[in-house]
Every structure is written in C-alpha cells, then in structure tokens.
Design a protein that fits this description.
321 residues, alpha+beta, Deoxyribonuclease I, Chain A, seven-stranded mixed beta sheet, 8 helices, 17 strands, globular
Length: 321
C-alpha cells in the first residue's frame, strides 16, 4: 500500500506577535518595536484567520500533512495558526527554533503528529561577518519508521541590491550543501532529504546552482558523485508563474529541492515532480494583468485586512511505499 503526503511551504509575510508582547526580548523590541506600532492582538487574529482560511483549502480541503513556514516571530504565533486549523480535526504539532536573524523572523514546521514523529531537530548557523537566518533541519519518522529529513530555508534578503547581497546567499547555499552531505554520512547514503523555503534567488541563480548544488537534470542528481538536489520548480519557470511579484514581474523564489533518494524510481519515499504547484486559491489573487498575491501588509507597510501574504504557497506530493 502506498501512502501519499502533501508537503507545502508558505512565506507568511511578517507574522509577528502583537505590539509590546511579553514574549519579545528587549533587544528585539528596540530593533523592530517602531515597525509594530498599531499591530494589535485583533489585527494579529485577523491575519491568522486569513492565513488559516487558505491552509484549510490545501490538499483538497484536508490540509497539508506538513507545512513549512517562514517569517514567523515565535512559536506562540505558530500555535495560534494551528488553532485556526481546528476545523480540520487533525493532530497538528509545531517544530520551531529561535534563529539568529536580527529582525526576529524564524522558520518552522506544522505537521500531523498522527503521521510523523520528530526524532531530532537542528538549527544550522549561517554567518558571513554577521549572523543571518539559520537553516532549520527536522528529522521525521514516518508511520513505517522510515527517516525523512526536511530542511527549512529562508535565505538572506537582497537588501542593498542583488549583487551586493549575493555573497550571503552563496554562504547559505554552501551551508545547505554541506549539511546535505553530512546527513547522508551520519544517517546513511539512502536518506531522503527535501529542502524547501524562500531562497530569495531563483532556480537559475548561482547560489542555488553552484553552491547549494541544485539542478534541473534528474540524471545529474541520480548519477552525481557529490550529493545534489533536483530543483522541482524548473517546469513552472516557463509558465509565467511566480511565487512573489516585484515591479509586476513574477519571481520563483519559493522552491522544493529533492535529493537523489527521493527521485529514484524505486525510492521508498519518493517525490512526484509533476505534482508541484503554486497554490493560488480564489480570493487571494489580485485581478488585472498581474495575478500577484494580495498581501496583508504591516511592519510599516499599508494594511489590507482582507489580504494574506506577499508570497503564494507551494506544494508537492510525496509517496511512501
């Protein structure tokens, strides 16, 4: 019997705790406090309900089996989001780690604890003169007691320009490739690894191709001596779709990267490349010539309480024999 899991990822656009939250450190309050002026509990609740209304529609209305998220401030707001998913009647749990980002935004996972057990989690520190966002690794066990490793990413921003900031993403890509290799050395060469996240760069950029070692060629992934990833977003690149729109241009910044142990035909845990989607549900897409996501705003940006996020979520199906 084959089990199928829907894995999704979504950049939730500044899902911050409310203004003057007691869960925020004094240092972080000094850094971002002014940007949170007027960010009340009511507005946070509204944002969470908006996000939840989309997640409830994923996986044919059953909700994702695992949802990776980024731009969340803390575990508290992730647990609030889980509460908004109560109509699904699923046993969702949260894996979260406080990271090094100076703006206080983290990466985490919401997963169905009836399907997966967390064996371990690791936050891989990334630094280039100053600390940036960590890579968050979670080792899951399936119901069949198979190891399934996920790596959540939110790479350094393009602040100061793409070229000036490229070195930070190169270091992050190199860090991802290094820990991909270490996972195989520690847990065995047959370990399935799926990296996901907002990589800030696109599939063809150097940080992903040369440093993270991702490619569009399945054969190169399967036959390569050094561990490589198959970037599952390449087939969508020619369709004019984006996960984020900037200056009315689509950018595929949110991606899934699968290692060879997930793309071999006989793999026990196998990704289905043709299942990859940019999820665009009714009501979350702006009308007009540029079908970009309707953003909620905040953090100094105009608020639209009928919005969601500045990114579209993405999903992929994984099968287990």
């Amino acid at each position: 019997m084959v089990s199928k899991y829907q894995i999704a990822f979504w950049n939730l656009e500044n899902l911050f705790d409310f203004e003057n939250s007691p869960r925020r450190s004094d240092k972080l309050e000094r850094t971002i406090g002014n940007y949170l002026h007027g960010w009340t509990q009511d507005r946070l609740d509204r944002k969470i309900n908006q996000l939840g209304s989309i997640i409830l529609q994923m996986n044919g209305g059953s909700g994702p089996d695992i949802l990776g998220v980024c731009e969340v401030e803390n575990e508290h707001v992730m647990n609030q989001l889980v509460q908004a998913l109560a109509p699904l009647r699923r046993n969702y749990a949260v894996e979260h780690h406080d990271m090094s980002d100076k703006r206080g935004i983290d990466v985490g996972f919401i997963y169905d604890a009836d399907l997966f057990v967390v064996e371990a989690q690791f936050s891989h520190f990334v630094v280039r003169r100053s600390a940036t966002r960590d890579i968050f690794q979670v080792n899951f066990r399936t119901q069949n007691n198979r190891l399934f490793v996920l790596a959540g990413n939110h790479w350094p921003s393009r602040t100061g320009g793409k070229l000036k900031s490229a070195g930070y993403r190169a270091i992050t890509g190199e860090t991802l490739a290094y820990f991909h290799q270490r996972i195989l050395e520690v847990h065995g060469q047959e370990t399935p690894v799926l990296a996901m996240g907002d990589f800030i760069d696109e599939p063809f950029d150097q940080s992903l191709v040369e440093y993270a070692l991702s490619t569009r060629s399945r054969m190169k992934v399967v036959k390569a001596r050094a561990p490589r990833f198959l970037n599952l977003m390449w087939p969508l690149m020619g369709q004019g779709l984006g996960t984020l729109y900037y200056n009315n241009f689509p950018y595929v910044l949110d991606q899934f990267l699968a290692n060879k142990n997930m793309v071999k035909q006989n793999a026990p845990i196998r990704v289905l490349p043709k299942s990859v989607e940019v999820l665009r549900f009714s009501g979350m897409v702006e009308t007009g010539n540029y079908p970009k996501p309707i953003r909620f705003g905040g953090m100094g940006k105009p608020l639209n309480e009928n919005g969601f996020s500045d990114h579209f979520p993405i999903s992929v199906t994984v099968s287990e024999a």
